[in-house]
């Protein structure tokens, strides 16, 4: 009973207001990154994919009642995601099987989510979240298997100890990008005794050790996804501020250990900030979620607002130097819970108030002075 209470309390921020009641490819290493203008690449990243019951019902309706189709929900951002050299999502939930699908508080999403993400243009997803153990080790297995079948790489959870220790290396144009992913916790669900490596938990020393191992494995750029922060809080909390300082200050062979930090979990958009010369997105918000209820028990429209971060990396002037972000952008998004569609707010003038609120939050820690702009 105590565990049940803990689960419900810790997961409350993910509650929806109901409108009705292939084996992992080996890490790739190789030649030094090419130089010159053609060596640039763009990386985009987006927030939590959190399919509540209403979202699952809509995916079934979009499939004509035969299965589940998540592609129509995401079609509005496909032009942004599909044009990137590397696109990263956050798959907050695990997958169920044989029609056993559910929303809050213990999520089991249809595995067809993976195909929808792939069709939109996502290359990889972070999978470490407070819901990663909602269905135990079997849920992790089903989720990673489905992502593999869809051709979407993943980081943050694992099926074996070997997989947990293997860096996820991705190709972005000419560069090799390591993707790391960690969560603050698992809603009180203990790690499996026979699989303590199943989910990566946030630990500064562990993160830096993994980042250095990824460099050794050939990564030109190290991208870190963190499921962290305080739900429903626009501003980053003390842990986010402390960790961002410590992680971006760390060095490996004379260059930063981490090149970009991508935050999820808070359910609302949070600020972007350049910390020690490295871009940190404290929270991107929820890309897909039902109509959300905050900790006060009332509907909170911020739970359906989010951003896509887009970063253009340029190669180092000298071999062994740092790939630098030469252009940083954010694209404001909104999940319309009436139509169940992700909307690029640059294309919806009737939602200019929502767009402007997101922009104000994103720029609240001085990112504009460091060059962050709102992209199309």
Automatic annotation (TrEMBL):
Instruction: Please report the stretch or stretches of sequence annotated as the Capsule synthesis protein CapA domain.
Output: 42-291
PANTHER family attached to this UniProt entry: PGA BIOSYNTHESIS PROTEIN CAPA, POLYGLUTAMINE SYNTHESIS ACCESSORY PROTEIN RV0574C-RELATED
Organism lineage string: Bacteria, Bacillati, Actinomycetota, Actinomycetes, Kitasatosporales
Q: Where is this region: Disordered?
A: 15-38
The organism's place on the tree of life at top rank? Bacteria
InterPro entries referenced in this protein's UniProt entry, alphabetically:
Capsule_synth_CapA, CW_Biosynth-Accessory, Metallo-depent_PP-like
Provide the protein name. Answer: CapA family protein
Query: What stretch or stretches form a coiled coil here?
Result: none
Regions of biased composition (Basic and acidic residues) lie at: 16-25
Pfam families this protein is in? PGA_cap
Query: What family does this belong to?
Result: Belongs to the CapA family.
